[in-house]
Amino acid sequence: MVCLKAAGPHPEGPSLNDTVMKESLLFLPITIVYLAIKSTLFPAFPAPDLSLMIVFYMAYRKASFEAVVLGFVLGYIEDAFSAGIIGSTSFALIAVFVAVNLLSRKVQFSTPVMRGGGIFAASVAKGIIIYLIIRTSHVEVSFLSTVVLQAVVTGAVSPAVLLILSRITAWVNPQSFKDNEN
Question: Which of 31, 59, 77, 151 has its CA at 20 to 30 Å from residue 69's CA atom?
Answer without folding.
Answer: 151
